[in-house]
Write a structure and sequence with these properties.
This protein is mainly α. 41% of the residues lie in helices and 2% in strands.
Length: 161
């Protein structure tokens, strides 16, 4: 193995050195036309749209967990608003207990989720919000019907506890 001489300062370097140990002069010469770039260096066609570095990256979270446009990698699917799932759970629980209270809360949270979904097209969760609104209305109807039925039953003269 022959030691490499630096063209700038003349210092002796190992033949595997990429730069001069003395002055830092690079020993790399760019490839000629038609030659591929050396392994580990960037070259070739520019990355497709949406696959390059983004100067705004790391300046805070993006809404619903999506990557900012132009970030490395494929765009990630947007996460659904938590209110959609929460409202659905409240509406289902309201079918079995406290529907008169949980039904309206489920409807309010579902409407809030639908508002967020309308502001960010492509956000999932609209189906859950719609089902929560329907179940919340059923919660209220069941518990109101049950209250009216109990009142009428208690007011009947032949009703006994």
């Amino acid at each position: 193995m022959m030691p490499a001489r630096c063209p700038r300062c003349g210092a002796s370097n190992s033949d595997t050195a990429m730069a001069c140990a003395s002055c830092g002069q690079s020993f790399f010469t760019p490839p000629g036309p038609g030659q591929p770039p050396p392994y580990g260096t960037q070259g070739g066609a520019p990355p497709p749209a949406g696959w390059g570095p983004n100067p705004g990256w790391g300046q805070g979270p993006s809404p619903f967990g999506a990557q900012p446009p132009g970030a490395f990698g494929r765009p990630q699917p947007m996460a659904e608003p938590g209110d959609a799932q929460t409202s659905l759970i409240l509406a289902i629980v309201g079918l079995f207990c406290c529907g008169v209270v949980l039904g309206p809360i489920a409807i309010i949270k579902a409407l809030a989720a639908k508002k967020i979904i309308a502001l960010a097209p492509g956000t999932p969760g609209e189906g859950k919000a719609n089902i929560a609104i329907a179940l919340g209305a059923i919660d209220i109807a069941i518990w109101l019907f049950g209250g009216v039925f109990r009142f009428l039953l208690q007011s009947h003269p032949h009703y006994r506890y």
